[in-house]
TrEMBL record:
SMART domains: REC, Trans_reg_C. It comes from the Bacteria. This is DNA-binding response regulator. The modification 4-aspartylphosphate is found at D53. Residues 131-227 form the OmpR/PhoB-type domain. Residues 5-120 form the Response regulatory domain. Residues 131-227 bind DNA. Pfam families: Response_reg, Trans_reg_C. One of its GO terms (cellular component) is cytosol.
Length: 228
């Protein structure tokens, strides 16, 4: 597993799932959205690359890209347009909007993966900064200040509880095994039991109240933060 997170935006649900499956097989973390409207509700700055279909409902891929380029938090996120349109004018429009590559349907999955790898290599280190604050409904995490609040009321977490919450919230929907959490939160500490993680997560769930239900146990796999 690498640390690159990719968003696939296409109104063809089957195509989204095929791309998601194959990119995840390459080790990427992949989310999907079936419209630009759905994609724009996501926390876009956390993505390293967006695969964006041009021909979609009210907000086209070109329109979404234009909106992203006008926002300082998303203007540097690499974009690969995916479209059935392959005329010269459409290609030029895509590149004029700041596209990093352009793939016409039908395409081979091997070609997509090669282009994804090429764009990520080319744009490494030119990504947008990680946002300083993560917000899910009334739950807010201020990363630099190490503070968590619910409906503007600060709650007290231990260092480990804070780091677990941050890890899960930054990677919504991704399941972390106990081994993953140990490696990322406890780092090089030795003799940490699985039970220690369970205890910390139990306490964390209680402290964040109604949002505790979002920290879901996947039996046999681990934990994830799942949006309602």
């Amino acid at each position: 597993m690498n640390d690159y997170r990719i968003l696939v935006v296409d109104d063809e649900e089957d195509l989204c799932e095929i791309l998601k499956f194959n990119l995840e097989m390459e080790g990427y973390m992949v989310d999907t959205a079936n419209s630009a409207e759905e994609a724009l509700k996501l926390e876009l700055p956390r993505y390293n690359l967006i695969l964006l279909d041009v021909m979609m409902g009210e907000i086209s891929g070109f329109k979404m890209a234009s909106m992203m380029k006008k926002n300082k938090d998303t203007q540097n996120i690499p974009i690969i347009f995916i479209t059935a349109k392959d005329t010269e004018n459409d290609t030029l429009t895509g590149f004029n909007l700041g596209a990093d590559d352009y793939i016409s349907k039908p395409f081979s999955l091997r070609e997509v993966i090669m282009r994804v790898k090429a764009v990520l290599r080319r744009t490494a280190g030119v990504q947008t900064q990680v946002p300083e604050q993560l917000i899910y409904k009334g739950l807010s995490v201020n990363i630099p200040k190490k503070k968590v609040s619910i409906n503007n009321e600060e709650i007290s977490l231990t260092k480990k509880e804070f780091e677990i919450l941050l890890l899960l919230l930054q990677n919504q929907g991704r399941v972390f095994s106990r081994e993953d959490i140990l490696a990322k939160v406890w780092h090089d500490e030795v003799y940490v039991l699985d039970r220690t993680i369970d205890v910390n997560i139990t306490r964390l769930r209680k402290k964040i109240g109604e949002y505790g239900a979002c920290i879901v146990t996947r039996l046999g796999y681990g934990y994830c933060f799942e949006c309602e």
